[in-house]
């Protein structure tokens, strides 16, 4: 009895000692539970399957759109690929326009908004659930998405607002209002408002909370576990200084470092692939076999397809409308040239970078399969594939790269944090454009959005991955619902621009300067 | 043959020395001057979304400022020389752009000032004087 009392007292003391961290944990948990219950209905609507199937209608929506644009513009992503590269190289840039934003700069800035966690964590989620076969569908979605991006970015430039002070505002909300009016179509204003609302949610979700969340996961992975709100506060502080304090120099540093990180990432992946050159054939075999059979993953071929398309769309944002906001700010005489340049984004983002991540995860043997049947083994929940050490998301990518270069764990952590930061800066801009479209421009109104944006950084870093990733996906895909409807109605405008440009290019009216 | 001399000018002391040298030279040979200022710019640099939005306005401001603070005073100071003076204001890599200005204006010489002591950065990246000496389409004079 006496012993029992002693034990109880000890337990009480232990509990007392643990009270402080428990409180911190419960703050994270409270935020997490509140967040999940507040956004659940929205998430389940966006991802609801076609009746009687497991196929989410939203994924089909994106695939059909990309196919329609690809066919309507006669496989523009392949026809204009070389011309797009020549535009980025500056071959067609008038030297008298030097000092204006170049095509290269527009591409680099738009890319730093999309290249990020989608390429590192998103791909790991895709192959972790959908198996190697998800890669095939991801590449296909990337190639098709090039046509969607081409369409939306051309329209973004064509229908932007130019102000007397020389600044510009553009994006889907502007082509919805101005473009629809020009063509005598109804409901443009309504769609623009709807798009703006979703864009603000997307900016706070995928463009912010998901980034903060995964940046925290990386930090916790490298330096040991600690409460997420601490990372959140630090990140929010830095973002605040940049977007409210106007300290563009910090943002510019990341804009410079991010491309180097991107190149470093691809190079590291290439080295790993070369080291395992004998496995590349096998890896592609897995990708093709998995694409059509699933190789034992939950949902089979459809499961692989859904994961591939979903993560590709989330990573390259084709059809979402965000890139149209970024490109609209560029001054160019020919709106279609921004369309050409932007079609390189899904290629670089998805076809090159995402594929590298997937190949490295597959080749380094992170996914566990049954040697007898060649089928992948599933976790207890039967939804994800078993991995070495049970890694998921960004940790899976980290483990795959570290298996070849142990130091890469740290490089990746830095890359993730920088990518997260630059994506946040880009999305704070997209969100702000939607916000000012709804509420008008003005310092106080803009400040309100910027402060809200910073608060969500803290929420995102504190919440669990599950609810955050669901909400991020849902909000970004909701943008695509509205945006693609507008693209269908306005695609003849792009076709007219394309035909006029191509004929002038052929006749030599549009000439090379270099 | 009339001589035209491009002077690379940024308002610094060494640029003033170059301008004075070119003025004397033009006076002696009966030539004219092109006072050229280049705003260092690479189309391959990286900008934030905000900077992209403001770029066009900023460019206008930068051109105005350079015109008012650098080129106008230089032209003013040459009023009494009786020389024919034109100006050129461009964005780009300083050395390449000075070369291009010489080509488009039909100049047959470039005069630039030497910017102080050669520091670490010019050792690593090369100075304007060195790259111009390597790439210029016309003879270059570097004034110490």
What would you say this structure looks like, in words?
The complex is a heterodimer of chains A (514) and B (144). The longest helix of chain A has 45 residues, at 2-46. Chain A has a single domain (49-507), classed as Amino acid/polyamine transporter I (Up-down Bundle). Chain A is an all-alpha fold. Chain A has helices at 2-46, 57-72, 76-79, 81-89, 103-114, 117-130, 133-158, 172-182, 188-223, 228-243, 248-275, 277-293, 300-316, 322-328, 335-342, 344-363, 393-402, 408-439, 443-462, 465-507, and strands at residues 161-162, 168-169. The radius of gyration of chain A is 24 Å and the shape is globular. The termini of chain A are far apart. Chain A is built from 20 helices and two strands. In chain A, α5 (103-114) packs across α18, α6 (117-130) crosses α16 and α8 crosses α20. Chain B has 144 residues and is α/β, with parallel strands linked by helices. Chain B has a single domain (4-143), classed as 3-Layer(aba) Sandwich (Rossmann fold), CATH 3.40.50.620. Chain B contains five helices and five strands, in the order βαβαβαβααβ. Chain B has a five-stranded parallel sheet with strand order 3-2-1-4-5, sandwiched between helices. In chain B, α1 (13-29) links the parallel β1 (4-8) and β2 (32-40). In chain B, α3 (94-105) packs across α5 (128-135). The interface between A and B is medium-sized, with 35 and 25 residues.
Low-confidence stretches of chain B: none
Silhouette of chain A: globular
| Percentage of residues in strands of chain A | under 5%
Give me the strand/helix succession of chain B. EHEHEHEHHE
Give the biggest sheet of chain A.
2 strands, antiparallel
Q: How large, in whole angstroms, is the Cα Rg of chain B?
A: 16 Å
Count of discrete structural domains of chain B: 1
Q: Note the gap between the termini of chain A.
A: 92 Å
Mean pLDDT of chain B: 84
Q: For the largest beta sheet of chain B, what order do the strands appear in spatially?
A: 3-2-1-4-5
- CATH class assignment of chain B: Alpha Beta
Low-pLDDT stretches of chain A: 1-22
- Report the span from N to C terminus of chain B: 28 Å
């Amino acid at each position: 009895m006496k012993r029992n009392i002693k034990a109880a007292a000890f337990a009480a003391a232990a509990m007392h000692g643990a009270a402080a961290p428990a409180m911190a944990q419960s703050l994270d948990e409270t935020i997490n539970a509140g967040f999940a219950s507040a956004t659940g209905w929205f998430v389940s609507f966006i991802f609801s399957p076609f009746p009687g199937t497991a196929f989410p209608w939203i994924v089909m929506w994106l695939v059909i759109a990309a196919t329609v644009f690809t066919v309507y513009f006669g496989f523009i992503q392949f026809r204009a690929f070389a011309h797009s590269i020549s535009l980025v190289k500056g071959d067609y840039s008038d030297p008298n326009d030097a000092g204006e934003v170049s095509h290269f700069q527009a591409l680099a800035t738009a890319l730093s908004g999309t290249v990020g966690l989608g390429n590192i964590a998103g791909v790991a989620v895709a192959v972790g659930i959908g198996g190697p076969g998800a890669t095939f569908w991801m590449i296909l979605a990337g190639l098709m998405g090039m046509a969607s991006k081409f369409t939306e970015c051309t329209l973004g430039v064509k229908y932007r607002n130019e102000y007397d002070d020389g600044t510009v505002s553009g994006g889907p909300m502007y082509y919805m209002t101005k473009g629809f009016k020009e063509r005598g179509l109804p409901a443009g204003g309504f769609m623009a408002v709807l798009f703006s609302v979703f864009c603000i949610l997307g900016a706070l979700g995928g463009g912010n909370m998901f980034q903060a969340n995964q940046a925290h996961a990386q930090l916790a992975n490298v330096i040991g576990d600690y409460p997420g709100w601490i990372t959140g506060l630090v990140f929010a502080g830095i973002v605040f200084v940049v977007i409210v304090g106007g300290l563009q120099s910090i943002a510019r540093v990341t804009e410079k470092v991010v491309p180097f990180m991107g190149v470093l990432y691809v190079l590291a992946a290439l080295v790993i692939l070369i080291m395992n050159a004998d496995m590349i054939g096998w890896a592609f075999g897995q990708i093709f076999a998995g694409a059509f059979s699933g190789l034992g993953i939950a949902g089979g071929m459809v499961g692989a397809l859904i994961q591939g398309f979903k993560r590709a769309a989330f990573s390259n944002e084709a059809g979402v409308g965000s890139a149209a906001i970024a490109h609209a700010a560029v001054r160019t005489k020919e709106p279609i040239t921004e369309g050409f340049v932007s079609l390189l984004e899904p290629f670089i983002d998805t076809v090159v970078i995402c594929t590298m991540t997937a190949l490295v995860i597959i080749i380094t043997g992170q996914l566990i399969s049954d040697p007898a049947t060649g089928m992948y083994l599933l976790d207890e929940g039967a939804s994800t594939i078993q991995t070495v050490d049970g890694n998921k998301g960004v940790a899976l990518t980290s483990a795959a790269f570290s298996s070849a270069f142990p130091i890469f764990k740290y490089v990746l952590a830095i890359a993730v944090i920088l990518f997260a930061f630059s994506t946040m800066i880009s999305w704070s801009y997209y969100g702000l454009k939607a916000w000012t479209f709804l509420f008008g421009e003005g310092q106080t109104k803009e400040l309100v959005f910027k402060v809200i944006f910073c608060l969500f950084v803290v929420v995102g870093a504190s919440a669990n991955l599950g609810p955050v990733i669901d909400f991020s996906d849902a909000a970004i895909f909701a943008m695509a619902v509205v945006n693609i409807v507008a693209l269908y109605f306005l695609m003849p405008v792009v076709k007219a621009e394309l035909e006029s440009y191509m004929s002038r290019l052929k006749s030599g009216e549009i000439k090379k300067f270099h | 043959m009339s001589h035209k001399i491009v002077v690379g000018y940024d308002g610094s002391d060494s640029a003033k020395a170059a301008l004075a040298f070119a003025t004397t030279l033009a006076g002696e040979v009966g030539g004219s001057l092109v006072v050229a200022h280049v705003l260092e710019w690479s189309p391959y640099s990286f900008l934030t979304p905000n900077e992209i939005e403001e770029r066009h306005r900023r460019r206008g401001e930068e051109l105005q400022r350079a015109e008012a603070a650098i080129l106008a005073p230089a032209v003013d100071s040459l009023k009494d020389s009786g020389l024919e003076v034109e100006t050129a204001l461009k964005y780009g890599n300083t050395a390449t752009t000075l070369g291009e200005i010489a080509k488009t204006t039909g100049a047959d010489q470039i005069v630039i000032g030497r910017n102080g002591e050669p520091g670490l950065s010019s050792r690593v990246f090369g100075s304007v004087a060195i790259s111009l000496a390597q790439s210029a389409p016309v003879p270059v004079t570097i004034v110490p």
